[in-house]
Structure formats: C-alpha cells, structure tokens
Amino acid sequence: MSRIQANLLLLLAAAIWGGGFVAQSTAMKSIGPFWFIGLRFAVATMVVLPFVWMENRKATQPLTHRNWLSFLLIGIALFGGAATQQLGLLTTTVTNSSFITGLYVVFVPLIAVIFLRRTPHWVIWPAALMALGGIYLLSGGSLSHLTIGDFLTVVCALFWAAQITLAGSAVNETGRPLGISATQFAVTAVLALAVAIAVEPISIADIRAALGEILYVGVFSSGLAFALQIIGQRYTTAPQAAIFLSAEALFGASLGALLLGETMGPLGYAGCALMFAAMLAVELVPEFARRRRSPA
User: How many CB atoms lie within 10 A of CB 28?
Assistant: First the structure.
C-alpha cells in the first residue's frame, strides 16, 4: 500500500468517527444514553470477535490473571469515557463535543507526568494552555456559557486519555490489540446495560427507532474505523497519521453543521482552531524533534 492510500484510509477513519458524533446525538431522541452505549458496544464486541479468534491462534503466550485485570481496567476507563461523552451530548453540541473530546491528545502526556513520573516534551505545557484557551473561546469568552455537557466532555477526554495510557501499556505487554478491544467493548457493554436496566425505560420500539445509529456506531465507528486505523498506520509516518486522524474533530463539526444545523460565533471557531493546533502540536513537535536527532 502506498503512503497516499494509507493516509486516505486514515482520513476515512476520521470521517467515520466524525459521523459517530452525529449518530450519538440523534440517537438520544429515541433511546436513553446508557441503553445506546450498551447496545452500541455489544454490537462492536460481536464485530471484533472473529478477528480476536484469528489473533489468538497466532499468539505464543497465554494471558495471565494480571493481563485480564489490566483489560478490565481498560474497559472501565472506556465505559467512563463513553458515558460522560454520551451524557454530555444531551446538553452540548456535536461541534463542542468533537473538539473537546480531542483534548485527550493533550491529557495523555499529562497523565504520564502525574502518574508515571515521566518527563514530558516541553511542548505539552504551551499546548495545555492553548487547549484551555480554546475551551474559553469556545464558551464565547465567558465560562458561564459552558454547559454541563461541555464539562462532562472534558471529563470524557480525561477518561479517554486514561484508556489510551492503559491500553498502550497492555498491548506492549501482551501483543493483543484485538483481544484488548473486544474485552473493553464487552466490559463497557455490560456496565452500560446494567445501568440502563436500573435507571432507563426501554421498549422494542425505542431500539428500532435508534437502530440505524446503533449499527453505525457499533459496526463502523468501533469495528471498521479501528481496522482502517491499524492498517493505515502501518504504511505511513506518525506525524502524517496524527494529522489525518485529528481531522475527526473537523468532520464532527462539519457534519454537525450540515446535518444538524449547528452554528457558532467567531470566538467559537477561534477556540476550535486553537484546540486543533494544540492537538497537532503535541503529536507532531516531538516527532519532528526525534527525527532531527536521529542519524540520517
């Protein structure tokens, strides 16, 4: 596969993820957030399972109890991220959600500083300030204009960052990315359905009304887009992959405007641009610095 073809696959993955924000928002006109999360990740689990079977056949080492515990923790982090993002979409826009969620790119190295005692690249500090400035501008220049949904989405980005950190460690230790994916999907589905049964009403008519969104997010956002990301990143560079995958926020905002009629003022667009610049800086600056230090 050529680099151009790989980058186009990554761009398609970003577009699918961007569309997922719209599907998550419209689904809640028909179904409760926890029912949606539970059914979505149940579908995602079934999509990934055949590939897990193939992965297991090639594995040389069995999983230990410690590995399974780490998989469980990854699933709990994914549930936290999915729940706060879905609840946030009740009171925030698709545009805000897509950009604020992307702040996990900034939060991942911050988690490494706080919990793993790793010295970060210098760019993380200005990027964090840029991200905070972006949220302030997104609010229209007044924090009182931020909704509960916006704050929940910031918490969501923290959960995503924790999930990425835990998953990165687990995949390096076990070499089973698909097994991790299936386990975290299944854990999230079980936890969300347990909450949904306890607190949300449901009917077959509700599921039928939201079935398109459930299948889109379960099959495409979780199953297909994940596969496209894995394939594409094998044939392109890390900086280019970061650029194309970060376009998820742009697709989310564009589709929110096109399909849902969402709009924002000039300050909001400036905030989105500032957050997007922070995301790219955290991904690209360390990579470029590493390349300059490497021998030709």
Answer: 17
